[in-house]
Design goal:
The chain is an alpha/beta fold. The protein contains 8 helices and 6 strands, in the order E-H-H-E-H-E-H-H-E-H-E-H-H-E. It has a 6-stranded mixed β-sheet with strand order 5-4-3-1-2-6, sandwiched between helices.
């Protein structure tokens, strides 16, 4: 297996990101109007390129995917590319469904991690954010159990862990998109800095920089925002669950092959 730290971070290193909307970058669109999302993974790849000069990068993540879909669709091409580094976050969409079983999901995750490590890749795993409000209140215990398993898998296979659970800056509403499920551009930016920190990549900014003081939100405004969220985000999400559809049914990976990314882009 490859060494971590400075031995891993070298010019020409290869990076593959696997996952769902979290890794695709939903909530953080590129400003060119293309409809393509940037997200923490693309931002991390840019940090890596800035640090070593050039990397090769692929992002296979597709929104809405369940963990078995991610392993079935994304693991084989990742193993074929044999990257130096793989970021893998999966399971969140499963746990938002009634049949979500943290231990069963962990077994699927462990299978993928085992294959990646045997293939020689360093692996980055993630816990989630500790938010026990709103619609997350009833599921936070399931998520916590899953993340304990994620940590155990990381220990067993020598993986890097990005512990979002302890990132208090991500509990601020400004870290989240209007849909309250995906991170905002600022949330993605801070997470990219945190992953870089875990990998030992120097950055010129701090992921834990305190938020500016926020203006208080009046009750009436908060209720209007709640109603807008129910209509535009929660309602369509429930509709997809009831009809067996996914937001990623017609979406393909934005960067399916390893391609060069340089310091000057």
């Amino acid at each position: 297996m490859k060494d971590g730290g400075d031995a891993l971070l070298r010019p020409g290193m290869s990076v593959v990101s696997m996952g769902d909307s979290f890794t695709e970058g939903v909530g953080d669109p590129y400003p060119d109007g293309s409809g393509v999302f940037r997200g923490w993974a693309d931002r991390l790849a840019e940090h890596l390129a800035d640090h070593v000069g050039e990397i090769r990068y692929a992002n296979l993540a597709v929104r809405g995917k369940l963990i078995r879909q991610i392993v079935t669709d994304q693991l084989p091409p990742t193993l074929e590319m044999a990257p130096d580094l793989v970021t893998l976050c999966a399971g969140g969409n499963d746990l938002l469904r009634p049949a979500g079983d943290p231990e069963r999901l962990a077994r699927v995750l462990e299978h993928a991690v085992s294959r990646l490590r045997k293939g020689g890749s360093d692996v980055v795993l993630f816990t989630g954010v500790n938010i026990a409000t709103g619609y997350m209140r009833g599921t936070i215990g399931l998520f916590a159990r899953y993340y304990m398993n994620v940590r155990a898998i990381a220990d067993e296979y020598g993986c890097h862990v990005v512990d979002q659970w302890s990132m208090d800056v991500l509990t601020d509403s400004r870290a989240w998109d209007e849909d309250r499920l995906h991170m905002s551009p600022e949330g993605h930016r801070r997470l990219a800095l945190r992953v870089a920190d875990v990998l030992g990549v120097p950055t010129s900014e701090r992921w834990d920089e305190p938020w500016p003081e926020a203006e208080p939100v009046r009750w009436a405004q908060a209720r209007r925002e709640d109603l807008h969220w129910v209509k535009e985000s929660l309602g369509p999400w429930i509709g997809r669950r009831l009809t067996g559809r996914s937001s990623g049914d017609t979406v393909t990976a934005k960067r399916p092959e390893l391609t060069p990314l340089t310091k000057d882009r």
